[in-house]
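Record pair follows.
FIRST:
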Amino acid sequence: MEYIKNRILSFKYAFWGIETLFRETPNAVIQLVAAIAAILSGLFFHITNAEWLILILSIGGVLTMETINSALENLSDYASKKEMHPTIRKVKDLSAAAVLIMAIAALAIGLVIFLPRIIHLFS
């Protein structure tokens, strides 16, 4: 019974993490709005199942990278007492770069999926 209770608690903590992400990270809110726009566009344009899978993975990738970036930033700030040590700065810059790389990839995916449909809509 203790095992089940601990599993339920682990989900509770994960949902608290999601709440913290969107409450404390403005970029995550922007990314969530972009994700909702992409999902609505997918519904509007009736994208294929394969395109849905790619879209879902790219949205998940961006939000996952943002979550890891936020966790590393919080841990770095705590460990350094908010003093900017060169190694802490490098860790924060690298984790921000990971988010940027994933966001650029997601944008490229969105363009490949939606741009031809948008062009066709207006032609």
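SECOND:
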Amino acid sequence: MIRTVEQYLESLDDGRVVYCLGERVKDVRTHPTLRTIIRFAAMDYALPNDPKYRKLFVTKNEEGEDVNFLFTVPRTPEDLLRRRECFVTGVRSGGGILLHCMGIDALAAATIAANKMDKALDTNYVERVEAYRKHLQKNDLGLTGAMTDVKGDRSLRPSKQVQHKDFYVRVVDRQKDGIIVRGAKMHISATPCANEAIVLPCRAHGEDDKDYALAFAIPLNAKGVKLLAVEPVTRTNGEEAVWDYPHAWRLQPTECMIVFDDVLVPWERVFMCGEWQFSRDITYGFASFHRLFGASKMVGELETLTGIARLIAEYNGLEKYEHIRNKLAWLAMLTATVTSLGRMACIDCTEDPDSGIMVPNLMLTNSAKFTFADNYHEACKTVQDICGGIATTVPTFRDWNNPEIHDYIEKYLAARAGVPTENRVKASRLIKDMTQNYYQIDHIHGEGSRAAQQIFLYMSADWDRYIAAAKRAAHIDGWQDDPTYGPLLDPEKVIEPKMPPIDTSYKL
């Protein structure tokens, strides 16, 4: 089933408990700021129903029904490339994919872990996960993934917390019809606009923490679920919001704290319950896929940031100066590097041996995300430098439309002849909006901090091959059995015997 935008919007009128800015939200679709998030998420349903994009977003399931491609299992590199293209297209469109990205990455992680647990422990988690996948396909649900726990004292493991035991989501009771869970998840994207969430552990666990080794799916209007939406970037609406916050207007923060206040989860929706040995598999599986999304969504972000830098340079009459062109060249290089690394992560993927899922290349995926995150503040600084101080003090929509001061702004903020002052002001507003604190923090920590990516980069490195290369170059034994360097031809053995003898008459 492929739902329409109207069907999706209607599904959000489900009695969910949401708070924003200290007030209970009566309807997320009509809330002054949350409706911006809903509009953004609704693009997930507009794109598959558009003839231009239907072939990309829609496929057939095993029963021959039309389903969202993102709810299928990636079995080939081409599937991963198509998944990435869905992400890139959605973000470039100014909306879309946010609603599904977290959820489908969590679904992939649950699939990987379920296969491992079933083979090792003779459980039936694969059956549950696949039944849930069919439920998603048939109902075309908006899905998010909830991983990050609030953590409390981070020096202590989940079961050793002092103030209370609910800093990590845990099982507090096992009943005939399901489990009772308690705790909270933090920074969960797309929550106000999703229908359901897949909840995963955020770390590896020891046996003492087995009650926290927990994965399940839950409707967001379930009894005991409470959604605490984050403060919006802008509280304005309409034309004023579009003018003053051209980026945030369509990309308002969508994060929530999800509180689970003794929530009943039916057994058929439980995908891990106490199998602490496999928490690491589900956590790492999610990170592997979600960083592919992170690297994909940054394509549109970087293209826009690089483009607005070039545009404001033209408006300011500076695009031909060497130092400006060097800054623009660096921005273009950063954009191309992140784009290429993300694409190659799909092509050079690996197959999970238990589930058959194609997993993005860990080294390349984390390299893409780290390259972006590690350079994002520099990119913001570079764009601000090209724009000038107006990026901080640019007039607002209300200033521009005040007849008492409009002419002063029109006159004194003009730049290059032939460029309307309004265009320069709008470009400067976009730079101010895109390089503000929220996005600088979000882009660094979204999909895992740089430290998390460095862990994956170290783990993913082929140290045996690198060391073999070094030993071969240094003439230290131990490289001969390496599959890459061992078979290589040795010039000293292959070429030297065929060389004529050395002429000893030279004085070297």
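COMMENT: The chain has two domains: 5-276, 282-460.
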